[in-house]
Amino acid sequence: MTDPIADFLTRIRNAVKAGHKVVDIPGSKMKREMTKILKEKGYILNYKFEQDGIRSNIKIALKYHPETKMPAIRTLTRVSKPGLRRYTNVEDMPRVLNGLGIAILSTSLGVMSDKEARQKNVGGEVLCYVY
């Protein structure tokens, strides 16, 4: 697999479109941090990290509106790709949907949302947009 983050986003996107409640994803440290950000910002209900020997797994409970059954995640877009990395500084930090969505960044201080990166005054690689 050449791009595990794109695989992570695609598995979530496909599960949302299929209406699944839970999705299983092979785990890594980067995916674990991205999952924590999605939970903090209210895009997923819950998550569980499972470790069996060397292999790790992430179970993500997807979030839907109780009455309309609309998913909390409308769009997941990969920005920085292995063939073309996208970096940004604090001044040029992207605003997703004019502040309604989030951008997940990999910075020197760890993986964080665009709002946290602005507060800590750091830039980094823009991994994806979520709204």
Automatic annotation (TrEMBL):
Domain of life of the source: Bacteria
Keywords noted in UniProt: Ribonucleoprotein, Ribosomal protein, RNA-binding, rRNA-binding
InterPro entries per the UniProt record, alphabetical: Ribosomal_uS8, Ribosomal_uS8_CS, Ribosomal_uS8_sf
Pfam families hit by this protein: Ribosomal_S8
GO cellular component: ribosome
Record-stated family: Belongs to the universal ribosomal protein uS8 family.
UniProt-recorded name of the protein: Small ribosomal subunit protein uS8
Gene expressing this chain: rpsH
